[in-house]
Design brief:
The structure is a homodimer.
Chain A: E1 2-10, H1 27-39, E2 46-47, E3 56-66, H2 75-82, E4 87-95, E5 106-115, E6 129-130, H3 137-145, E7 149-152, E8 167-179, E9 182-189, H4 196-208, H5 217-223, E10 238-245
Parallel strand pairs in A: 3-10, 5-6
Antiparallel strand pairs in A: 1-3, 1-4, 2-3, 5-9, 5-10, 7-8, 8-9
Helix pairs in contact in A: 3-4
């Protein structure tokens, strides 16, 4: 028996998120089904980031245990033959038997992309959030830097969850205009609450249009109230970029 | 009666190209239908670039005549309300009554995007051609520069057309690695033959992998035979970037 780690990219448009649920097809479900058929064993993957419906990924991580004799590094090629074109495994390798994608220390990076122009572009509609009002990126960056460090992020957590400990650590949070009409928010942290990156994005947009000031951010954190922060930005602007594990792989 | 010029962006994935045809829905057809309903007149647009099935656009041009009293610059907003999300008109304005999108002098720019890495990325699959073999971009650039100028491009024209004069002028043709895994071919010219940019892309890819040399390009042009050039690269890698009219528009 060995434990295999997959790095999984997907276009989230057609999926009800990562985690298996009754209301529709999920990425986890497709992986379980295709791995089970490929390996002739009942496979149940464990994912690192349980992304929401519509969220994309370049590098989510999943692990599973198997008795297969397919070499671990080759497994992704065999699996990709069977997967639909909107899910592509980027790599596969063997990891330690005690490696757990959520419990082991990791640094996760997400990117929220805003198409900031007067008229939408159809070729970017699936992967960016179209927002037509001018954004003050310098102000957004000042607000973003207030989130770096260990904080209680209760104000940035969806109320549709019952998690008790809402303290998390953000290692970096940058806002950059990468093209004339594109604003990217990039957040790296060791753990995230439900909807946290999308609420951060929604709040930074309010700063960008002057409805909030960078100086308001410490107060928003202190209130520990979802209503203190901005709206939850739409899922399709968000991409899980990748996960780096501390020495584990 | 006035003549209106539209700049039209679209995701070509779901369309059988620009031009009305029996086998499926086209961009021209959707514009005709929605303009006719919006303006209460029978509208028939004339397009500049009759892009193939699956080709995308940031800036194709269409014109039509109308008696509407909607201000020309506002027309795009009213029209976009009715269009599907994969067609978005970027601007509308009045032009001279004798302006014709294909007959007036213009410089058209196309971009062919190649995702050049070992494993596909699902979020780019609709807008790039995935090609896994290493490409020598410096060689491709040298080959591309042989195409600049006025040449007989018969070797770069689909045989499924009966055009007689196959002389065209390319103003620039560049090949650039815009990211570690992205190679962009950008071509500007005053006119193009059927499939010409896709055949240029397919030929430059053969140069990139060493199956052709840059020095072969003049001979390929001289042969005036479709079989002398490389394959027609897939439509979904191609985007019509924009059209600049000489003083007209």
């Amino acid at each position: 028996m060995k434990r295999i780690k997959l790095v999984v990219a997907y276009d989230g448009t057609e999926y009800c998120g990562w985690q298996v649920q009754p209301s529709g097809i999920t990425v986890e479900e497709v992986l379980n089904r295709e791995l089970s058929q490929l390996l002739g064993e009942k496979i149940q993957v464990v994912g690192a980031s349980r992304t929401d419906s519509g969220v994309h990924s370049l590098g989510n991580v999943a692990v599973f245990d198997t008795n297969t004799r397919i070499p671990p590094e080759k497994l992704c090629y065999a699996l990709n033959q069977r997967l639909p074109e909107d899910i592509v495994v980027q790599s596969s390798c063997e990891v330690e038997r005690d490696f757990h994608p959520r419990k082991c220390y990791s640094e996760k990076t997400y990117e929220y992309r805003i198409l900031n122009r007067k008229i939408p572009l159809p070729t970017l509609r699936r992967y960016t959030y179209f927002y037509y009002r001018d954004l003050d990126v310098a102000k957004m960056q000042r607000a973003a830097s207030c989130l770096v460090g260990e904080h209680d992020f209760k104000s940035f957590c969806s109320v549709r969850t019952s998690v008790e400990d809402t303290v998390r650590t953000i290692l970096s949070c940058t806002v950059e205009r990468t093209a004339e009409d594109m604003v990217n928010i990039r957040v790296t942290g060791t753990g995230f609450l439900y909807n946290m990156v999308r609420i951060i994005a929604g709040t930074l947009i309010l700063v960008g249009i002057g409805e909030l000031e960078p100086e308001d951010m410490p107060g928003i954190l202190q209130q520990r109230e979802r209503s203190a922060a901005g709206p939850t930005a739409p899922a399709h602007g968000l991409t899980m970029i990748g996960i780096v594990y501390g020495g584990m792989g």
